[in-house]
Amino acid sequence: MKPTLKNLSIAGAVIALAPLLTAMPAQAYVGPGAGLSLLSALWAVIAAVGVAIGFVLLWPIRKMMRSKRRKNASASANAQATAAKSDQHSA
Q1: Domain ranges in the chain?
Q2: Residue 14's closest CA among 25, 6, 24?
Q3: Dihedral angle, C-alpha 13, 19, 23, 29, nearest 10 °
Q4: Using 50, 70 and 90 to split pLDDT, how confident is the model at 88?
């Protein structure tokens, strides 16, 4: 039988997967501190993603409120300026 690319691919896959099928279970102890560390890291990542999404979603609202506040401030400044001019002219 002549070695072909298909036969070599199958043989390579068998050789690559054999260590995964023969792996022995690890004799190790994972204490409660490791679980708590994992949970706190997970909560930190979830909180960071939530805050980032919140900032992105609230950005247009904050910008709209800021521009509205500036418009009101400039309108009141103009009204005060016109009132001051009319007071000067009437006095």
Answers
A1: 46-83
A2: 6
A3: -110
A4: low
